[in-house]
Design goal:
Helix content of chain B: 25-40%
Structural class of chain B: alpha/beta
CATH topology of chain A: Rossmann fold
Radius of gyration of chain B: 20 Å
GO biological process, one term (chain A): iron-sulfur cluster assembly
Strand order of the largest sheet of chain B: 5-6-2-7-1-8-9-12
Main location (chain A): cytoplasm
Family (chain A): Belongs to the Mrp/NBP35 ATP-binding proteins family. NUBP2/CFD1 subfamily.
Mean pLDDT of chain A: 89
Low-confidence stretches of chain B: 1-5
CATH class of chain A: Alpha Beta
Strand content of chain B: 15-25%
Pfam families (chain A): ParA
GO molecular function, one term (chain A): ATP-dependent FeS chaperone activity
Number of helices of chain B: 11
Oligomer: heterodimer
Number of domains of chain A: 1
CATH superfamily of chain A: P-loop containing nucleotide triphosphate hydrolases
Order of helices and strands of chain B: HHEHEHEEEEHEHEHEEEHEHHH
Shape of chain A: globular
Shape of chain B: globular
Distance between the termini of chain A: 17 Å
Low-confidence stretches of chain A: 248-260, 296-303
Largest sheet of chain B: 8 strands, mixed
């Protein structure tokens, strides 16, 4: 990975302290939901923390919807693209996604690899993130163009990279998670830990816990592979509905708040902290922050 | 049949270097073999000779191979983890339940092949003969091809960029000895990218009979599925219909149904209406479906009378009807 230290990407990301890649081999296990929660919780971790979310799932961007930013668009300034701020004027939660570049929500992005590669390079070199404590990168499923491009373009900042793996407990998902782990090992990105998502579902009617997608597989895998197990998250319908954003914003309000942020996404932060998942996730974030600050943590993951 | 063709050796996906040229101009480009990025690429000479610029030489071979396949069905979804592979497997099993029919399943999810596990044949390997690669048979009339059969270990990651994935898909279509097939069901990865474009491109002449699009009820999934249907329209694939998976959950303890993934914007039914495609049915979330997939057994054979089983069968009947079979 001998790359010139002074690439546009390196210059742009100079003020970013930690870059966390959220990945999983499998689709639909909750990468975007984990990325969103990670960003919200990291932002809440200190009154001055500044967090960025970069969505590199180019053909299926979900982050705008989850942060309640559907319909926003990106502004071009003389110094690059201005990210969309989910918290408006406070400007501590910046977000960038291909979703902001599409005219209609049903427009498909039918791109082959080289075009995706170019878009990712632009995201990394042209977005004006400014100073960030954490940049959370949400990835698409698989280990292909997007992932290789990320690693390639971020080679100059490789020392600040780390990854969080997400899986669900079924064997089929764990198999893909193993592939993802093998990817992080090949590219020597330290793994902060593994999250087991959709681990059990509490019936709202009788309180019985059903293991809709089985349970425990993630923890078992973490132990076997010597990874830090960050925690398991049950299916939380409240959270699903919150991130699914039942009420899409009317176009009027979008225009009014065109210079970034919206009233609703402020509420999102508050409402998130009231879900039953938020305290569980707080424990995960504590472990992530701990792993980022302790250098010894990088050791077992980098093997 | 395709006697003139040399038996293609089964490739070892890991023998291909993952650091192939970063800025490959594409084999059909004017710059193929001449760009800076091509220096040192193993295929530089082939590209530079101009051989690659004409129409893909694989196309006639694919057409010939596919001429014995009656129906080609794609299973698509913009979103991952909604049950594409599970549905593909059920569809394959259901077609193969009629012993007079020959069915094939092709898994073009190169980076995350789940089909071998779901069908319970994860440890099998592909063999090549003079007539091509033999599919792995689940039963006499159900053959399967997946990159999963070619990996030395299931934990190995296939870190490929687009062109390499396309190459393998083309081989799946031209080098696999499918024989006479009544149905070929193609399972795809999430998204609308290389794999999808390649399948459509390679099968353009042979014709795709239609696509079954899978979704789950929440808006985050529907957003991606809208894009997938838009993709089908753009490239001219007939959408057979939409299936809503994980639609409601019946608690095994109190028998009450709850919505795990709430259809906050009307779910699949509404989406089908809005996009002008048929709604084929909704399959409730049943933990036994996932478990069956993990153990590689057919959910339909085990629990045909469960609500999810009935829903699957209803959907499969509709698909057959729409195909006119």
């Amino acid at each position: 990975m001998a790359a010139a230290e002074d690439t546009p990407v390196a210059r742009r990301l100079r003020g970013v302290k930690h870059i966390i890649i959220v990945c999983s081999g499998k689709g639909g296990v909750g990468k975007s939901s984990v990325s969103t929660q990670l960003a919200l919780s990291l932002r809440a971790s200190s009154p001055t923390a500044r967090v960025g979310v970069l969505d590199v799932d180019l053909t299926g961007p979900s982050i705008p919807r989850m942060l309640g930013l559907d319909g926003h668009s990106v502004h071009q300034s003389s110094d690059g693209w201005v990210p969309v701020y989910a918290d408006g004027s406070e400007a501590r939660l910046a977000c960038m996604s291909v979703g902001f570049l599409l005219k209609k929500k049903e427009d498909s992005v039918v791109w082959r690899g080289p075009k995706k590669n170019a878009m990712i390079r632009q995201f990394l070199s042209d977005v004006r993130w400014e100073e960030l404590d954490y940049l959370v990168i949400d990835t698409p499923p698989g280990t292909s163009d997007e992932h290789l491009s990320l690693v390639e373009h971020m080679a100059p900042v490789h020392s600040r990279l780390s990854a969080v793996l997400v899986t669900t407990p079924q064997a089929v998902a764990l198999m893909d998670a193993m592939k993802c782990l093998s990817f992080t090992r090949t590219t020597s990105i330290p793994v902060l830990g593994l999250i087991e998502n959709m681990s059990g579902y509490v019936c709202p009617c009788c309180g019985e816990i059903s293991n809709v997608f089985s349970t425990g597989g993630g923890e078992e895998m973490a132990r076997r592979e010597g990874l830090r197990f960050l925690g398991s998250l049950p299916v939380d319908t409240e959270l699903v509905s919150l991130l699914d954003a039942t009420e899409p914003e009317s176009l009027g309000s979008v225009e009014r708040l065109a210079d970034g942020g919206s009233v609703r996404s402020f509420q999102l932060l508050e409402r998130y902290q009231n879900t039953s998942t938020a305290p569980l996730f707080q424990a995960i974030v504590d472990k992530v922050v701990q792993a980022l600050s302790g250098d010894d943590s990088h050791m077992n993951a980098a093997i | 049949m395709i006697a003139l063709q040399q038996a293609a050796p089964v490739p070892d996906p890991l023998s291909v270097p993952s650091n192939a040229p970063e800025h490959c101009p594409g084999t059909e480009s004017e710059l193929a073999g001449k760009a800076d990025a091509c220096a040192g690429c193993a295929n530089q000479e082939i590209c530079a000779s101009g051989q690659t610029k004409g129409p893909d030489p694989a196309l006639p071979l694919i057409r010939q191979r596919m001429s014995t396949v009656k129906r080609k069905i794609l299973v698509l979804s913009g979103k991952g983890g909604v049950g594409k592979s599970t549905f593909t497997a059920q569809l394959g099993w259901a077609f193969a339940a009629d012993e007079h029919l020959q069915t094939g399943i092709m898994d073009v999810d190169i980076c995350g092949p789940s089909i071998p596990t779901i069908l319970g044949i994860a440890t099998e390997q592909v063999h090549s003969s003079s007539s091509g690669w033999s599919p792995v048979y689940v039963q006499d009339n159900l053959g399967v091809m997946s990159v999963g059969f070619m990996l030395p270990s299931s934990t190995d990651a296939v870190m490929w960029r687009g062109p390499k994935k396309n190459g393998l898909i083309s081989q799946f279509l031209k080098d696999v000895d499918w024989g006479e097939l009544d149905y070929l069901v193609i399972d795809t990865p999430p998204g609308t990218s290389d794999e999808h474009l390649s399948v459509v491109q390679y099968l353009k002449e042979s014709g795709i009979d239609g696509a079954v699009v899978i979704t789950t009820p929440q808006e985050v999934a529907l957003q991606d599925v809208r894009r997938e249907i838009d993709f089908c329209k753009k490239v001219g694939i007939n959408v057979l219909g939409l299936v809503e998976n994980m639609s409601g959950f019946v608690c095994p303890s109190c028998r009450n149904e709850s919505q795990i993934f709430k259809p906050s914007t009307g779910g699949g039914r509404r989406l089908a209406q809005d996009m002008g495609v048929d709604f084929l049915g909704a399959v409730p979330l049943d933990p036994r479906i996932g478990k069956s997939a993990d153990y590689g057994i057919s959910f339909l054979d085990e629990y045909p009378d469960s609500p999810a089983g009935t829903a699957y069968l209803g959907i499969i009947d509709k698909i057959k009807q729409k195909l006119g079979d």
